[in-house]
Amino acid sequence: MEAVKQLRQLRTVYAWGAAAWTGCLLLTLVGERGSTRQTVLLLVLLAAFLTLLLWSTWCLWESGAKRRPGPASAAAPSGGAGEK
């Protein structure tokens, strides 16, 4: 169970890292101040974080770790009109 908790924490770090590198890349492209080398470096960092994010998500999926039910899933009715 501790491993699942660590994987969730890693996935959060990777998600925030991917978001941060995406923001940096967008600022570089919009500001037109970045060099080609800087843009390539940011793309490589973004690709690395996205790969690690996918890997950690896949590991959690394979471990069968279920998310804790949130308020939306707890309030959802079961056995709706379309279900049999």
TrEMBL record:
Keywords of this entry: Membrane, Transmembrane, Transmembrane helix
Region Disordered: start-end pairs: 64-84
Transmembrane segments: 12-30, 42-61
Protein name according to UniProt: Integral membrane protein
Taxonomic source organism: Streptomyces griseosporeus
